[in-house]
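About this split. The held-out portion is used to measure sequence recovery: a designer receives only the structure tokens and must propose an amino acid at every position. Recovery is the fraction of positions where the proposal matches the reference. Here is one held-out target exactly as it appears in the evaluation file.
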């Protein structure tokens, strides 16, 4: 049975497929509701995706929280990154002592008539950009306990510690148990 990961971002799909080799990529234009609750966002995405595609479906949502910015931007990170980029995100932290940040990836899976959810959560801190691998906030994210930014890591290294890697590993274990 094919399992479709709904995304238009090939790099995101490649990371997921490295963990679950049989995944299929499907690009669908899904409306994304605005909410501070990732599960609510994913439930709406799954419902819309199921109208356009039959079978097992995976959708994702990512949140990034900066405690020094009162948890901003949360699930609004995609728009923040697309509008201002890493340089201005770091600029927003100028003068902020607390440079911690955390990533949460929540996956929604529609499988055999039921919805399931999987979280991956990782803490770290914002640093000056380093590295040429990865994408998005990877160059400025230094995971706790590591000396390399996510952008300095290989995909294999990153998938062991990243929010998306942790969530997809939970999903893989779930699928293997079925």
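Reference sequence for scoring:
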């Amino acid at each position: 049975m094919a399992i479709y990961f709904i995304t238009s971002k090939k790099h995101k799909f490649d990371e997921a497929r490295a963990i679950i080799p049989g995944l299929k990529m499907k690009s669908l234009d899904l409306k994304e509701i605005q909410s501070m609750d990732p599960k609510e966002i994913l439930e709406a995405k799954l419902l819309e995706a199921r109208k356009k595609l039959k079978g097992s479906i995976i959708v994702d949502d990512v949140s990034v929280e900066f405690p020094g910015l009162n948890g901003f931007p949360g699930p609004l990170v995609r728009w923040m990154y697309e509008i201002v980029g890493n340089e201005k995100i770091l600029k927003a932290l100028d003068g902020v002592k607390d440079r911690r940040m955390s990533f949460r990836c929540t996956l929604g899976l529609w499988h055999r008539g039921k919805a399931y959810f999987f979280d991956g959560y990782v803490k770290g801190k914002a640093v000056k950009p380093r590295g040429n691998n990865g994408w998005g906030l990877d160059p400025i994210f230094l995971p706790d306990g590591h000396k390399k930014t996510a952008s300095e890591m290989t995909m294999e290294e990153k998938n062991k510690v990243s929010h998306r890697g942790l969530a997809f590993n939970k999903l893989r274990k779930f699928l293997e148990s079925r």
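Annotator remark: Helices lie at 10-19, 38-52, 77-92, 155-161, 163-176.
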